[in-house]
Amino acid sequence: MECIKETSGESLKILLSAGDSLYGEVISKLSNTTKIKKYTSRDLSFDELDEWRTYTLPDILCSRYPGGVQLEKQELVDLMEWKLTKGKFRPMLRKLIDSNDPKTVASVTNRGFENMINYYSELSNKDTFNYDSFQKALKESLLIFSELKGVGPATASLLASLLSFILKVKDFDRKVIIIPPFFCDEACDALNPKLTVKLKYNLKEYFDLNLEKYITILGGASRISKSYDLNESERALWAIKRGQLENVQVDKKYLDALTNLLLSKPSLGSIKRGADDIDDSSAAKPKRRRKYIAS
């Protein structure tokens, strides 16, 4: 898919290629590693679970459009299984997710998805990408998703990333649609190599340390003129960082490409920087008092 007017185009092309061959190699290694044996009710290996999350589930959501895009409880449970297997294992999250009522899962996820779908629907075919309006709509949806037990900003971003199915819907094929990325540790590390503080997994970090950096490596908000799924970049970044941890050979060209993109520092277009604009760490806090904070 042609996505942007290229700036540092070759570096971006090289980086995204890591989301294909290298990503598959790392996923296969994790799937074959004996320490990773966390299967779902679907009785899938990890590479099969990743295939389900990346392709099958978005297709299922697409089939539910426009009648009522929502997740079933078991789908939410399996998404958490994918998240915990692929990233940091937090056993309490599994229990919290499983404690949600099925009707609540359907209702909350429907409101979260519909909020972003309405935002996309209101874009005109002539609109260019506007970061401020995108950020506002996305923040609203992340807060809605976070009403579920066990869902903080990171998991909420995972749910939002499933909106990739929108790119297959004819209603949106002439609009500039940006699909929000999943907030994962490895991609955040890759985008912020000099970061030394421990992540709090709040909304401010999601926007400042993740979303804005993705826009940066695309050449800046003002340069985006076509639809783009930021999860393509997230998968590439995850593959690079996790590949290094798993002793998978990571070609130096990927590291050089990422460095070049981060050093280019293009204009962020309409992005407005300000500590108070998006600091909403309360989104990571539960509605009711409990000892465990979801991510």
Low-confidence stretches: 1-7, 267-293
Separation of termini? Answer: 32 Å
C-alpha-based Rg, rounded: 18 Å
What is the number of helices? 12
Output the strand order for the largest sheet.
Answer: 1-2
Number of domains: 1
Largest sheet: 2 strands, parallel
Global mean pLDDT: 85
Structural class: mainly alpha
Secondary structure: number of strands:
2
Helix content: 40-55%
What portion of residues belong to β-strands? Answer: under 5%
- State the shape: globular
Helices and strands, in order, run as HHHHHHHHEHHEHH
What does this structure look like?
Residues 270-295 are annotated as: Disordered. Residues 285-295 have a biased composition (Basic residues). The protein is mainly alpha-helical and 295 residues long. The protein has one domain (9-284). Helix content is 53%, strand content 1%. The chain has helices at 9-17, 21-32, 46-63, 73-86, 91-98, 102-122, 131-145, 153-161, 185-191, 203-217, 230-245, 252-264; strands spanning 178-179, 228-229. It has a two-stranded parallel sheet with strand order 1-2. Helix 1 (9-17) packs across helix 12. The longest helix has 21 residues, at 102-122.
Which SSEs are present, and which pair or pack?
Blueprint lengths: L8 H9 L3 H12 L13 H18 L9 H14 L4 H8 L3 H21 L8 H15 L7 H9 L16 E2 L5 H7 L11 H15 L10 E2 H16 L6 H13 L31
Parallel strand pairs: 1-2
Helix pairs in contact: 1-12, 2-11, 3-4, 4-5, 6-7, 7-8, 9-11
